[in-house]
Amino acid sequence: MRDLRIAAVADIHLGEDVRGHYRKRLEGIEHRADVLLVGGDLTRHGTLEEGRVVAGELRDLPVPVIAVLGNHDYHSDRDREIISVLRDAGIVVLDDEAAVLDLDGVRLGVAGGKGFGGGFAGKCASEFGEPETKAFVRHTRDIAERWRSALKSIEADHRIVLSHYSPVKDTLMGEPPEIYPFLGSYLLAEAADEQGADLVVHGHAHAGTEKGVTPGGIRVRNVALPVIKHAYSVYCLGEDC
Amino acid sequence: METPQYVAARVQRALAEDERTNELGIRVDVRGEQVYLRGQVSCSERRHQIENVARETAPGMRVHNEITLVEMLEPGEEEHL
Ligand SMILES: [Fe+2]
Ligand SMILES: [Fe+2]
């Protein structure tokens, strides 16, 4: 079985003011990668206009594109419409679900969605006290639960989790520790570790670092544009890698 | 003089919530009458807007715009996992 080359980026934060810039950087992607994963924060304000800019930049690429939304893409309460616009442009959008692509005979399963915060084992919020606190924690729990089922449903040669929020602290290094609970949750890592995956890709932590690992040993990569400083990173999966 | 921590908090909140910016990743430090802005954004127009919002929210203070532009190089070497 041949190797898979996964291009990944997050936090492209597109808008009218930068239309066309990112698209230019995707030229020739078919020579470098088999698929492009985009880990959320596609827009700045989450408006439908910005969603259309994103669809324009990512449509009709020579490789399939799989994306999730980020917190910015929810800001204007147009997240459902943005998802539709992206899907109409041929982009696979994961909203706590899985997709399996056949890439020239190699099956790649990707599961995920936006994710959410809550913090990391031993230093995190729990479902206790005020309804607001419980709702915050429950949101992440529900997401993790849906990711478990999504991962379980995948039958493929390789599995990747695509998220906006981080599953681990490792890739937050560089961010102020006080805001870690707003940057990710260990519950996301737990779901991946339980069901198994080859890689977790996320964004959101603009000041974080690229490389980390879950408690169960799955590689984690923070591909936020300000972190990777390239149009996208490429990760190779397979026997020869 | 207003307590520096509250000025920093107000500027940071404005940068996150003001429609012109909606930037969450900007560090705001206040020392005396000086406001320092640090972080990365993707174009110079956004960089200027952040400075404008910060000036409006911290009137009478000196704003130092140390925000840099996000580099976006050609894709580099692939990593083998
Ligand atoms: Fe972001
Ligand atoms: Fe984000």
From TrEMBL, chain A:
Entry keyword Magnesium: no
SUPFAM superfamilies found in the cross-reference section: Metallo-dependent phosphatases
Calcineurin-like phosphoesterase domain residues: 4-207
Coiled-coil boundaries: none
Any one cellular-component term (Gene Ontology): membrane
One BP annotation, GO: lipid A biosynthetic process
GO molecular function: metal ion binding; UDP-2,3-diacylglucosamine hydrolase activity
One Pfam family this sequence matches: Metallophos
Domain of life assignment: Bacteria
Keyword vocabulary terms for this entry: Hydrolase, Metal-binding
The protein's name: Metallophosphoesterase
Automatic annotation (TrEMBL), chain B:
Occurrences of domain BON (ranges): 3-71
Species the sequence originates in: Microbispora oryzae
InterPro entries the UniProt entry points to: BON_dom
Name the record gives this protein: BON domain-containing protein
PROSITE patterns: BON
